[in-house]
Amino acid sequence: MQKIGFVTEDATDMPRELVERCQIAQASVKFTWPELEGMPGENTFQKMRELAKKGDKSFGKTSQPAVKDFLEKFEEQLAKFEKVICITITSKLSGSYNSANQAKSYLKEEDQKRLFIVDSLLVSAAQALLVMKAVDLMNENKTAEEIVAELEKFVPQVHSNLIFEDIKFVEASGRISHFAATLVRGMAKAGIRPVLAFKKGVLTPTGLKTGAKDIPTAIFRQLEKDAKEFIGAGKKIRVAIAHGDDSQGAQRLREMIESNFKNVEVAFVNIIDNVLGILAGPDAIIVAWCEV
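-> structure tokens emitted (292 positions)
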């Protein structure tokens, strides 16, 4: 039996090959948007564009993985590993953490002692970086208990920035008012792009980028500002990029990062999952980073 296994959700935006290499089990976040069914497109973002062309103002809904799904993933990993660590989406945005704990309660008492659940207070690429940190610690021969303790301290050290192309999907979800959305659109027309970040598990405005010709440039400038102290000190930084069906923009951002920063590892570039995707909308980009 192997030492430590991991469980998370499919909303981490980790590429499939990375998930398989690290032997990570993923519970599935549920997604419903009836109006999107039948729309042409290879992914949710392409279908969202088609729906918008029709003038449809409906909005999709997501919900945490079922308790049964978490339970199945726990049993699957506990059969292969001595101990298992589950790292969930921020409890401030999703009920995943509660579902995972409910699932744990259905395990035998001896198996419950082998399972540890961590609230990442993150989502998307930022959550993926926390999972990767856990794998690194396991490879350093840390115990499950030591890994959990270090992860809880490390959560505030994982940073993420997100820029929307259009705020309408957040407005449609009811998370911001029409007045606030109108202000954001006005700033965008003036060349000012609001930057959002996850802080203490909540999506929060963190800055304004002026004069940036596009999202990749704007989010690069924010990363440059936020990570300046770390990069200047020669510390190694790990970066993950997720996008709303703008692979060209995301790749250009990657090239800007790699050509301008030393000691930076871009762990992956991948499309945003539906959990954050239905809020972010097409062409949004999120960049997450942490010290390795």
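The longest strand covers residues 202-210.
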